[in-house]
Amino acid sequence: MAEKKTLQDVLDAAGNPVELMRNARTGAYVYPVVAPEFTNWRDEVAAWRHAAVMFDQSHHMDNLIIRGRDAHRLLSRVAINSLEDFPVDRAKQIVPVTPAGYVIGDGILFHDEEEQYTYVGRAPVTDWITFHAETGGYDVELTVDRRSPSRPMGKAVTREFWRLQIQGPRAWDVIEKVNGGPVEKLKFFHMSTMDVGGTPVRTLRHGMAGAPGLELWGPYADYDRVREVFMEAGEEFGLTAVGARAYSSNTLESGWIPSPLPAIYSGDGMLADYRAWLGADSYEANNTIAGSFVSADIEDYYTTPFELGYGNFIKGDHDFIGREALEAMDRSAQRHKVTLAWDDEDMARIHASMYGKDELPYKFFDLPNANYGSSNFDAVVDESGRVVGLSMFTGYSYNERTALSLAVVDPDVRVGDRLRVVWGEPDGGSGKTTVERHRQTEVGVTVSPVPYSSEVRENYEGSWRKVGQV
């Protein structure tokens, strides 16, 4: 039997990881299985601001269950966060980094019961935890439940769990109607249980724009029954099912950059071992880089926790991978996260170019999510053309009636500054299947707060989203 190929084999054959990922033929990164729209994406977006929505998160994320006496020790080793004050029935956002202090990814860690945790999020963190569990001598047992296939091609799809969120200003009305009476508003990211039409489900206290809501989950066999109970109960409150198109644009308003490039494509020692462990079929081996920023050095695409707004997560009460590197970094020299509001006139010009008959259009700006790679990097430039940041997640907010992107920018860039984003790839575009022949253009942008939505910025509970937090 032929030896299994690894990520390192793929990189060796390609020569340069940037060229590999800029021209990967992987196809679009999609939010699978859930219908693109249930009504239309505009009304679905408006509903999370004005009524109540059901987000179906059952299919686009990995579930990694970690059981055993060394589960806490393993997770403390890979996360910049402290897990010392993390009892059962709590959840928190965790961020692993490389030995050099660059971000692998992030996701939510649930403390289900004594010696059992569940990580929910994108594949890079699943892979990083699994690698250390298998190679670090930890007494743990893992259950890896991968995200649903992007293109199931008519085949049945099942998961370990269904996962739904009920959010928006009328969300608690829906929740209490289903419950048949009042439901305790636990603190943010505290877990409990709830009865849904005779089916017990787990709950996580969540909330958008200050309005209390819940994330709910349970065995996948109960999915249809639970969903129907909520949709029926929520009809009088305007509960709207949100499809994949609208769901993926929510982060533009809330300020989370969901797809940093996992910083594992360079480096020796642990990282070399990791690349030899990852398979050629892994997310990391099939990742795509999109956008106008092009550098031959893959490390120019890496980010630190400080840049992504996670600096306050770093705790020195445990020995985690990357601690020394992060402690040595100059925080004042780090880029910081902002929202860029794109000029309406330039956006109209981009869309109008689709109808030009005599020259190539500009890069297609899809609605409401305009990203065309797994990890996106558009150059942000000042009036002299100097690159002062990277725009990393782009789309259109129907609630704000504005094209927005989430970016990391140089320390001296401030809210209110005027900059430009280079939209489209050089030389007519790369070889990705998501890229048509096009020409580049520059779009005027105004540097704005993150989160962009004042409701979220002033009222969102917990974590880095609230105003005044790093």
Overview features:
disordered C terminus, single chain, 6-stranded mixed sheet, alpha+beta, 19 strands, 470 residues
Q: Layout of helices and strands, plus pairs?
A:
Layout: H1 7-14, H2 17-22, H3 41-50, E1 52-56, E2 62-67, H4 71-78, E3 90-94, E4 107-113, E5 116-121, H5 123-135, E6 141-145, E7 161-167, H6 171-179, E8 191-196, E9 199-208, E10 211-219, H7 223-234, E11 239-242, H8 244-247, H9 250-254, H10 270-277, E12 289-290, H11 323-328, E13 336-342, H12 344-352, E14 375-376, E15 378-381, E16 387-397, E17 402-409, E18 418-423, E19 441-448, H13 454-459
Parallel strand pairs: 1-11, 12-14
Antiparallel strand pairs: 1-7, 2-5, 2-6, 3-4, 4-5, 7-10, 8-9, 9-10, 13-17, 13-19, 15-16, 15-18, 16-17, 18-19
Strand order of the largest sheet: 8-9-10-7-1-11
User: What fraction, in percent, of the residue positions are helical?
Assistant: 10-25%
- Indicate the overall shape: globular
Whole-number mean pLDDT: 95
- Output the structural class: alpha+beta
Low-confidence residue ranges: 466-470
Tally the helices: 13
N-to-C CA distance: 51 Å
The largest β sheet comes out as: 6 strands, mixed
**Integer-rounded radius of gyration:** 22 Å
The overall strand count is 19
Percent range for β-strand residues: 25-35%
Description:
This protein is an alpha+beta fold. The chain has helices at residues 7-14, 17-22, 41-50, 71-78, 123-135, 171-179, 223-234, 244-247, 250-254, 270-277, 323-328, 344-352, 454-459; strands at 52-56, 62-67, 90-94, 107-113, 116-121, 141-145, 161-167, 191-196, 199-208, 211-219, 239-242, 289-290, 336-342, 375-376, 378-381, 387-397, 402-409, 418-423, 441-448. The chain has 13 helices and 19 strands. It starts with 6 loop residues before the first helix and ends in an 11-residue tail after the last helix. Strand 8 and strand 9 form a beta hairpin. The strands form 4 sheets. Strands 8-9-10-7-1-11 form a 6-stranded mixed beta sheet, with helices on both faces. The chain has a 6-stranded antiparallel beta barrel with strand order 13-17-16-15-18-19. The model is unreliable at 466-470 (pLDDT under 50).
